[in-house]
């Protein structure tokens, strides 16, 4: 019997070859989505776990909907996986450890323990001889004045856990700010940090594979507004071999200490010609999105290569790049397309104030041409936080 008018033929979905590796990912946001976009051409299969049924990675691969600490959902995610990884540093470390019953979890969840607590993170940096802002743990109101005396003003009071993109922070510029800072954040474990009058913010992205082989991308310069990354420039302007070596030494010490496998990002302050570490992200990172078009091997592909035990790819640049985040609104796609050397990435997320919805990368053969293209993209992308 033929199909009648208006009838729709059933869609046949091809099943994947049985021997392709399966990467199960805790988290299914834009970072997971870009991991899948890098891995699908390599024949890698993906499965994601995310609390949102409309998580962006779910348009590319099967999505398990559930809490990232829900052991039943984690079982569902990790069963049959070649390797389990994560795309968010807020993943409950116990959840990541639960996945290890099914497959190796890479990077080791120990990296989550460090990244999730600003005090442990700063102590780890210090123990490894990595420079940091002066800091003191603060648990009680009575400790705050003493902490301010110890680190000096201006300072920043931060929650030890759960802060991101500048959230969970309060400036203490003068003694009159102390009450308000405690009012805003007191009651949970805190850390007070001296505010560094840095020259600029940089980050280093590095990848380490199973046998310990490590590669670093060139240092990136980052500009933030309201605590959210707006623009990354790669390589960082005026990057000297000494500064690159210092950044690489910081990343390598952390990678070796954590016996890390995968991509790690370290956010840095350049201050008086030296680097201080602010925080680490045990995952692919926003300041590495330029590598998709601007490096021989993207951070996403290199993360997959590392966790699957493959040889790492080159981290050499292809020209000069910059990346602009699209926050709160997406630019007109035609307007971006009209800028030569510009690449639009739309995460297909519902617009919301302060939300990262996509990014645009520009690549050019010279720094001047890159800056011209960056200028043109900035005209198109609304750089005001909405
Ligand atoms: P964080 O959440 O620690 O990454 O902080 C967000 C932003 O606040 C950083 O990118 C810096 O611009 C600024 N910031 C955080 N800590 C410090 C500090 N100790 N000194 C100066 N600026 C800081």
Note down, in words, how this protein is organized.
The structure is a single chain. With 386 residues, this protein is α+β, with helices and mostly antiparallel strands. The protein folds into three domains: 22-105, Rossmann fold, CATH 3.40.50.20; 134-194, 2-Layer Sandwich (Dna Ligase, domain 1); 200-384, D-amino Acid Aminotransferase, Chain A, domain 1 (2-Layer Sandwich), CATH 3.30.470. The protein is 28% helix and 26% strand. The strands form three sheets. Strands 9, 10, 11, 12, 13, 14, 15, 16 and 17 form a nine-stranded antiparallel β-sheet that branches. Strands 3-2-1-4 form a four-stranded parallel β-sheet, sandwiched between helices. A four-stranded antiparallel β-sheet has the order 5-8-6-7, with helices on both faces. The N and C termini lie far apart (56 Å). Adenosine monophosphate binds at residues 133, 156, 163, 166, 193, 195-196, 201, 224, 227, 267, 278-279.
Write the layout of secondary structure elements.
Elements: E1 22-26, H1 30-39, E2 45-50, E3 63-65, H2 71-78, E4 83-86, H3 93-99, H4 110-115, H5 118-127, E5 135-138, H6 141-151, E6 155-159, E7 169-172, H7 178-185, E8 190-194, E9 200-208, E10 214-216, E11 220-225, E12 228-234, H8 241-257, E13 262-271, E14 274-281, H9 291-294, H10 299-307, E15 320-327, H11 333-337, E16 342-346, E17 356-364, H12 367-380
Parallel strand pairs: 1-2, 1-4, 2-3
Antiparallel strand pairs: 5-8, 6-7, 6-8, 9-10, 9-11, 9-13, 11-12, 12-15, 13-14, 15-17, 16-17
Bound molecules: adenosine monophosphate.
């Amino acid at each position: 019997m033929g199909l009648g008018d208006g009838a729709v033929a059933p869609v046949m979905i091809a099943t994947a070859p049985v021997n392709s590796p399966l990467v199960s990912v805790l988290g299914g946001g834009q970072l997971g989505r870009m991991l899948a976009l890098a891995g699908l051409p390599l024949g890698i299969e993906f499965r994601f776990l995310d609390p949102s049924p409309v998580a962006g990675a779910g348009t590319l691969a099967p999505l398990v909907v559930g809490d990232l600490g829900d052991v039943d959902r984690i079982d569902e995610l990790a069963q049959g996986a070649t390797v389990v990884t994560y795309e968010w540093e807020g993943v409950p470390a116990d959840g990541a450890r639960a996945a290890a019953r099914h497959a190796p979890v890479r990077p080791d969840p120990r990296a989550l323990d460090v990244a999730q607590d600003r005090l442990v993170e700063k102590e780890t940096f210090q123990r490894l001889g990595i420079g940091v802002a002066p800091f003191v743990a603060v648990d009680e109101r009575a400790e705050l004045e003493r902490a301010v005396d110890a680190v000096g003003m201006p300072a920043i009071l931060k929650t030890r856990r759960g802060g991101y993109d500048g959230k969970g922070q309060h400036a203490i510029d003068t003694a009159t700010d102390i009450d308000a800072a405690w009012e805003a954040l007191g009651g949970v474990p805190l850390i007070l940090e001296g505010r560094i009058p840095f020259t600029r913010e940089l980050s280093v992205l590095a990848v380490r594979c199973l046998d310990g082989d490590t590669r670093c991308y060139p240092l990136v310069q980052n500009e933030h507004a309201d605590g959210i990354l707006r623009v990354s420039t790669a390589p960082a302007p005026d990057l000297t071999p000494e500064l690159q070596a210092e950044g690489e030494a910081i990343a390598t010490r952390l990678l070796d200490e954590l016996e890390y496998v995968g991509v790690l990002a370290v956010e840095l302050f350049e201050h008086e010609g030296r680097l201080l570490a602010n925080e680490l992200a045990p995952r692919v990172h926003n300041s590495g999105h330029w590598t998709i078009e601007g490096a021989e091997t993207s951070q996403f592909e290199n993360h997959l290569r590392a966790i699957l035990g493959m040889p790492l790819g080159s981290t050499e640049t292809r020209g000069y790049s910059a990346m602009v985040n699209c926050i709160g609104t997406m630019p007109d796609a035609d307007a971006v397309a009209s800028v030569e050397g510009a690449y639009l990435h739309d995460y297909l997320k519902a617009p919301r104030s302060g939300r990262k919805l996509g990014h645009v990368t520009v690549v050019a053969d010279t720094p001047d041409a890159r800056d011209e293209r960056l200028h043109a993209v900035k005209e198109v992308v609304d750089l005001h936080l909405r």
